[in-house]
Design brief:
Largest sheet: 7 strands, parallel
Helix content: 40-55%
Radius of gyration: 19 Å
Number of helices: 11
Shape: globular
CATH class: Alpha Beta
Number of domains: 1
Strand content: 15-25%
Length: about 325
């Protein structure tokens, strides 16, 4: 099978590409290599995938929000399915640069749906986010919960992607699977996320900013578990049989939470980072940030029942694995 992977230089995209190649698939990876965070990290991920892929991975730099450039690049390319992980990420940055989210997450998502549609309803797995649940106080978050009160533009664009996808599944019968990711971490992670920021601060002796005065919980999900869920969805696209899918659609469109089904307090996460680093953290307590939520917790019953997804890595195992990689990557 040949798979088109967007966001292939990103954290999840690179890990998914590597796993696909390892099992014998071919991957065409695309990414625009924007400078939201260090492009050098993105290039390092690409080199890592290329070195391990034995020629099964090919990369092309293109912005999927640019329909003409995307069409030109894909004109002579064949693929059997799409994993659309590329997006403008980050809740807080959406307060500073909303247009970047509209371009990448809305226009870019429609461009990828159009590619899937015009290639004969090619199945597509796409990235949504746990942020769509907004300030939902009912825990754990279920795909059956209402998601019409987003608290950030990032969340609003991801919910819009789900609604647009439902339309394409209805009108064009494109098999689509949306994945609401919950706080992914692990080797080759993103430097704007808590695990990286906290580890870097502890090792450098800088203070850690903890918001909502420490009353913050997250469903931390190790990258290996996320990749297993993404590929399970790739291998089992929703069937156009009129049955109700996860998320409530009767079209070939499923929505799944993909998390660890555990909500961990950030202060415990910091304690595990301290232990793995062999150093104490300096902690500064701050009020809640605009657009943030105090707690995330994934109900994964649907993806477990449909696809057998069962996360394997707890934070007690995952955090030391991340810290070991982080120190190695920095050359400590």
């Amino acid at each position: 099978m040949r798979v088109l992977v967007t966001g292939a230089a990103g954290f999840i995209g690179a890990a998914v590409s590597a796993r696909l190649c390892a099992r014998g698939d071919e991957v065409l990876g695309i990414d625009n290599l924007n400078d939201y965070y260090a492009v050098s990290l993105k290039r390092d991920r690409l080199r890592h995938v290329e070195q391990a892929s034995s020629g099964a991975f090919r990369f092309a730099e293109v912005d999927f929000a640019d329909a003409e450039a995307l069409d030109r690049m894909l004109a002579d390319e064949a693929f059997d399915s799409i994993i659309h992980l590329g997006a403008q990420a980050g809740v807080r940055y959406s307060l500073e640069n909303p247009r970047a989210y509209v371009a990448s997450n809305l226009l870019g998502h429609v461009n990828m749906l159009e590619i899937a549609r015009h290639r004969g309803a090619v199945p597509m797995v796409y990235a949504s986010s746990s942020s769509v649940y907004g300030g939902n106080e009912t825990l754990p978050f279920s795909v059956a919960d209402r998601t019409d009160h987003p608290v950030s533009l990032y969340a609003a664009t991801k919910r819009a992607d789900e609604l647009i996808s439902e339309t394409y599944a209805h009108l064009y019968r494109v098999p689509l699977t949306g994945l609401r990711f919950f706080t992914v971490y692990g080797p080759w992670g993103r430097p704007d996320m808590a695990m990286w920021l906290f580890t870097d601060a502890v090792l450098e002796g800088r203070p850690i900013k903890v918001f909502n005065h420490g009353e913050m919980w997250r469903d931390f999900t190790f990258i290996d578990d996320i990749v297993s869920g993404v590929i399970a969805c790739l291998d089992h696209p929703p069937v156009d049989d009129g049955a109700i899918k996860a998320g409530g659609s009767v079209k070939p469109h499923a929505l799944y939470n993909i998390g660890n089904h555990r909500s961990e307090k950030l202060t415990r996460v910091i304690a595990l980072i301290e232990e793995a680093c062999g150093r104490k953290a300096q902690i500064e307590m701050h009020p809640m940030q605009p657009g943030d939520v105090p707690r995330t917790y994934a109900d994964i019953d649907a993806i477990t029942a449909d696809l057998g997804y069962r996360p394997q890595v707890t934070i007690d195992e995952g955090i030391p694995r991340f810290v070991d990689w982080f120190r190695s990557y920095r050359g400590d």
